[in-house]
UniProtKB/TrEMBL annotation:
Protein name: Alpha/beta hydrolase
Domain of life: Bacteria
Molecular-function annotations in GO: hydrolase activity
Transmembrane portions of the chain: none
Pfam families: DUF900 (PF05990)
Provenance organism: Paracoccus simplex
Length: 358
């Protein structure tokens, strides 16, 4: 078992070389072949004392607000970030071509000025640097192509495979800041739909923020948002207690799970064998009953393509969910229950039903 754990941690560490922070420095001379994507970012990372314009893995009690204009190459392949291999070239690489800094009010004003009616708020997972999370969020937004304005909440991950416990503490540290950002978005009369997408450990942070909103009486905020947790790295018992505390939402909280997730298997080993909610078997009648009782929509997404750790389905999930048509609460694809995503299109089969649903 120890050898298995060490091997899987090695695989996590080897998922790809970390890009340098310099990829977020704007290339003013770069000629983007198409209109760049503006990535709005709110972060609890500290601002580097050594290098201007950089955020490090320090934890700041004050939220920083920034936007990056990301040029995405014409030959971009869905699900892929075309990282620069040397001097960034907007014809072949993701390239930062602009940056703006804001205070809180300026950030919200810039969102309003963008004309956004829909926003997608992405909360990244464990072992993510600032530059990785910015480019990944931009890639997801590009591939989703759903017309919503993308926002990243970047918490201070140390971006090391061995930093699991440190990252978990950093995520918890950021709970109030995320809750405040969600509340700010919900208070905007111009926004029609607010998607909140938490990946992996970002799912734990998302649930903690929802609990804080509920416990502080912000039911008005919870009524305005739609929440998706992809590959959530949360202890199963903890998740159901969180779901009980948050309560049922008008659009049921969506939980995307996959029993083959190897990264969550590592997390489970580190947690003394406690099951992670992101890899549960939704065919278990007890799980189905809990989902219905707590107003949670669980979807088995094992059929989607992924990486060797089976933990990257987020690159497809955001696009898939964001394009689902709106539905009356309690009906259609946005009602509580357990479903299996089909291998073709958006077909879904409900657990306990022989009727395929779309």
């Amino acid at each position: 078992m120890k050898q298995l754990l060490l091997m899987m941690i090695f695989l996590l560490a080897a998922c790809g070389d970390k890009p340098g922070q310099e990829v977020l420095l704007p290339m003013q001379a770069a000629m983007a072949p198409a209109e760049p994507l503006r990535m709005f970012v709110a972060t609890t990372r500290g601002q580097s004392q050594q290098q201007a314009l950089f955020f490090d893995n320090g934890r700041s009690p004050n939220v920083s607000y920034v936007s990056y204009d990301i040029s995405i190459p014409p030959g971009h392949r869905a699900g892929v970030i075309e990282w620069p291999k040397g001097q960034p070239d907007p014809r072949t690489d993701f390239v930062t071509v602009g940056r703006s800094n804001y205070n809180r009010r300026g950030f919200l004003n810039a969102l309003a000025a963008s004309g956004a009616t829909d926003v997608s708020l992405y909360i990244h997972g464990y072992n993510n640097s600032m530059e990785e999370s910015v480019f990944r969020a931009a890639q997801i937004a590009k591939d989703a192509d759903a017309g919503s304005v993308p926002i990243l909440f970047a918490w201070p991950s140390v971006a090391r495979a061995t930093g699991y416990v440190t990252d978990r503490d950093a995520a918890d540290f950021s709970r109030a800041a995320l809750a405040g950002l969600i509340a700010d978005l919900a208070e905007s009369s111009k926004l029609r739909r607010i998607f909140v997408i938490g990946h992996s450990m970002g799912g734990r942070l998302t649930m903690e923020a929802l609990m804080q909103l509920r416990l502080s009486g912000r039911t008005d905020v919870l009524r305005r948002i739609e929440v998706v947790l992809a590959d959530p790295d949360i202890d199963q018992d903890l998740f159901w207690e969180q779901a009980r505390a948050v309560g049922k939402m008008p659009v049921p909280l969506a939980l995307m799970v996959a029993p083959d997730d190897r990264a969550l298997r590592v997390s489970q080993i580190l947690a003394s064998g406690r099951e992670r909610i992101g890899k549960v078997d939704i065919r278990d009648p007890a799980t189905v009953a809990k989902a219905e009782a707590h107003g949670v929509r669980m979807v088995d997404v094992t059929s989607l393509a992924t990486d060797r750790m089976a933990h990257s389905r987020i690159v497809q999930l955001a696009a898939l969910y964001d394009t689902l048509p709106a539905a009356t609460p309690g009906t259609g694809l946005r009602r509580a229950g357990a479903f299996v995503l089909g291998t073709v299109g958006l077909g879904m089969a409900e657990i306990g039903s022989e009727i395929g649903r779309r």
